Amino acid sequence: MLAGCAYRPAYREPLFFETLGDDTELMVTMRTDRARDLIVYTFPQLQEPEMEDLFDRAQRVSVSTPTSPGDHDVQVYGGIEGEIPKLLTRMGLTLSGQWERNREGFVYFREDATGFEVAVPKRGIIVFADADLPQVYDRMTRDRVIYVPGELAERFLEADAAMYSQHPDGMNLFAEQLPFPFELFFDELWLTINQVDDVVNIDGTGLPDQRMYHLEGIITLPENVQARVFDRLIRVAYRDYMRKRDFEVENWRVTVNLQEQTVVFDNFLIFEDIITEVLTNTIRMNH
Fold first, then answer.
1. pLDDT for 141-159, tens place per residue?
2. Which residues pair with 126 in a beta bridge?
């Protein structure tokens, strides 16, 4: 669908993901060279034949989604950055037969089957939303307010994947791992996620046939008592998760520290199924 072009970031200062979302939403950014499987799991439509060439040219996928419970007109919006020519990408969408061309202040396309909407506002990026793209377009690309602090943006740029929210309204991150529903109300959350290429269990036993990831970051809660409860829940859930897979937790180098109201993840290894569960629980599309 696309002809060649050299990759130049569509937005540099600030980067696209630095201004994506607001303080009650969760921003997730993922590198396609290191987190491709996580991206495909989150957005299976990128494996469809008409999207395959586009995905091969992508460098980064960034999304924002509400953290508060309840119905939202828009559940997810964001952008795909990479070697993406503007005119040829528009032409490919027009000729595909599956996308309806619209104009409401700018040119955008709506997929007939799902209502998913995309636009190519400039070379190097496709912006998208699962609904109401004209209403979110200005916030994503024109009225750009820096949301992610600069020191974190540098970490996120190098990480395989990263998550950030200033003031989440409520998040059910680990639904399958905890014995009861547990919604979190944070003051701040940021996490970097990096695939671990070589892992050896020090007791000599084998590892499950799953990718493993290293987690680093913080979760700050409103009060110390809530942080203590969450810290304890994470430890119990992690121990239960590992032992169900016949691993002794003591054999793993895991560091979770409690600093007043903040739970700090310093050296935390988790399997791919937890990452995909978190993505499933947080990124929910209307279609």
1. 777 788 899 899 999 999 9
2. 80
Query: Quick check: 221 and 185 in contact, CB under 8 A?
Result: yes
Whole-number Å distance between alpha carbons of 274 and 276: 5
- Backbone φ and ψ of 202, nearest 5°: -70, -15
The domain spans of the chain are: 16-141, 150-282
Spatial distance between the Cα atoms of 51 and 124, rounded to a whole number of angstroms: 16
Asked whether residue 56 carries a pLDDT value surpassing 80, the answer given is yes
Distance in angstroms (rounded) separating the CA atoms of residues 232 and 219: 13
Rounded Cα gap, residues 78 and 20, in angstroms: 7
Partners of 60 in beta bridges: 31, 81
3-state DSSP percent of the chain in helix, strand and coil, to 5: 30, 30, 40
Q: Which residues contact 176 (CB under 8 A, 6 or more apart)?
A: 277
Can you tell me the distance from the alpha carbon of 233 to that of 31, in angstroms, rounded to the nearest whole number? Answer: 30
**Residue among 209, 216, 211 nearest 195 (CA):** 211
CA distances from 34 to 57, 194, 211 (A): 14, 8, 12
Q: What is the pLDDT of residues 216-261, one digit of tens each?
A: 999 888 888 888 888 888 888 777 877 777 666 554 555 677 788 8
pTM to 2 decimals? 0.85
Contact 41, 276 (CB under 8 A): yes
The confidence score (pLDDT) of residue 182 equals: 56
